[in-house]
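job 3f2a | input accepted
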Amino acid sequence: MKKSYKIDVDCANCADKMEQAAQKTPGIKSAVVNFMTLKMTVEFEDGVDAHEVIKEVRENCKRVESDCEIFI
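job 3f2a | predicted structure (72 res):
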């Protein structure tokens, strides 16, 4: 399943850090952050609870870039 989320991030480098953190999160098949549109597109692995996984993605992103936000 693929979903897009609105994000808030200050720079392209921070967006790259968010993308890398999201990709390392268990339950994520792929994650792409587009700094220009301020969107994150996430593809979840089959059988996972997308809402719970995206909460973990948000926590992982905040560890690498504390002032970023993913609007769930």
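job 3f2a | The longest strand covers residues 2-8.
job 3f2a | closed
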